[in-house]
């Protein structure tokens, strides 16, 4: 998020001074890291939680369409950066990969058919295929079909999906900023945010030298992943009051058998367990990390009070304030099924993890998969007039009333929607500048101000262009 915002500002106002302070020794090592991030290129093509079955038995495509629109904006942003030679070859961060939903049993199959009918009628999802024929599903994803006992299964597939290495993309955007004069400070932790007459005083600690110093800024963006909540609370802005965080940790199984890895070429998403958070949806995923193909399954959710993978066990308790205590207590009361689910996941044995893998890959051999730790996700807890507090699955932009500070909380779809989220943030925080920026934004994002789902001609033009530039066709 920070690298994306910095890139937009550098394009829009080249003379503005930008400083980036990163606690770790490199950019993109926490939530953006490919082993901590699903890398789906979230476009709602396969993620079923973006298009749930309604109480009326229908699927409303609106949320899925919105998320797909957002990822189309990100794709255009990537294309601009590649075409201008500002970042490297698209193969270093994005690769074409089919997206597929796969479900087991009558109820889930009925739902997937309903979802397919609702989404495939939308121009953004017009290429979606659907089948309940195991042989056809086996053509799409052999590992899913082979060795499967009789029983009803169903799958939907979009061939034009992607896999994104957001760690690589983040590092390339950050490197670009460094070459254009931005001050990059790795191994520097932001410790304080205080208002001053010109904006903000930012307290920073150099982790290597232990030296503390202060930087003055007219505008501050807090793009610290799970660490953003503490910094926003520290700033004292009233807009951050009432927000809390619920951390969810996780693990993945990563395949070590090259023959198995070579036989799977898709992201296959299933249906979440009852009580499971959306980012715990099981998926059997091909990944491309540092140019190497890999295969992983998971995640297996867990609970840790860390807000960052490199954070502290005190992160959760230290985030509790009088203003967010009631929302957090209400969320705990209303989400007992989630707590139960997480407890069961924490105590799940390796053999049980292997059984979950075999639901999606029946012939999987557990010894050929290694267990790795995934990234931390901090779900947003916020005030709600009716319930007192709700657990929100998604992203939340928090902006001070005067527009001098903004921060981002939450998780999925997160990185995939960074470009449109940052354009929206620029409009909120720099209203007097934004009108003068729009022609440049339209150069970077040709669909700016338009909805591709209702403009089929523009959708075709944008898709063809981004596919060509990003080598996805």
Automatic annotation (TrEMBL):
InterPro entries: FAD/NAD-bd_sf, MQO. The keyword Ribosomal protein does not apply. Transmembrane segments: none annotated. It holds the Pfam family Mqo. Its EC number is 1.1.5.4. Keywords: FAD, Flavoprotein, Oxidoreductase, Tricarboxylic acid cycle. One of its GO terms (molecular function) is (S)-2-hydroxyglutarate dehydrogenase activity. It catalyses: (S)-malate + a quinone = a quinol + oxaloacetate. GO terms for biological process: tricarboxylic acid cycle. Pathway: Carbohydrate metabolism; tricarboxylic acid cycle; oxaloacetate from (S)-malate (quinone route): step 1/1. Its cofactor is FAD. Belongs to the MQO family. This is Probable malate:quinone oxidoreductase.
